[in-house]
Please model this.
Amino acid sequence: MTEKIDKYKVQAALVRSFFDAFSHGVIESQVEDRKEKTTPQSVKKLMLEHYEHIAPAFFDIMFFPLAAMNYKYEDIAALAREAQQRGDDMMALVRTACGDEAYYNAMVEEYKRNFSMLLAGKYLSNADHLEGYVRKAEAETEASVDSDRAIELTVRVVMFAYVRGLSQTGEGARFDRSAHLRQVHPLRGATLFRLMLDAMNILLLDEAVDFADAEAADLASLFLKVCQTQHNFTVMTDEMDRTYSELMKE
Model:
């Protein structure tokens, strides 16, 4: 029997993982000097340059994961069709995916928190994210997501957002699509592994992991440290393989 994770925690992890992965994809594709990749100046400049691309990417990538926390998989397609028939815009569609107003409002707050940090040239640390993400009000009923599903959804957000970021065009863009896909293969790509470690940390744990006592070259031990169990590690790697295959078919 799998564990459960609080729905607010999952939603916050999904939103943070989107912004983390998308922004790093943009930076990887357009900044060649490693030392310049995550300087405040580079982050702020590129986020401002791609300001108008972020919201459409967010809605495209996040609709399914947000909906999958609140609806059965088989109902999501019908949900999207009904919204399209009503003429819902992107915000209305995401509001529907969130299930109720409280979760929608929490999602908006997480969106603003992450976006505003990037526009200031900064990233939320794992510790700051875990300390400050929106939690349920005292009067709310406890709601949770199956941990396997939460891991799978988070993996998809990281990989799809990373590729979407890599695919952005701009003055400094260096990669074509085939190069993008080669970079996100689960068996290689330092940036993707770092993104996934952070995503699993904020999803599965309540405090930031200190990797000081782990062997940096041993990826398996690093992932086991954030995944906590072999089962969670296997769920993550299996979903990475499935998502990579899906990306290759697009």
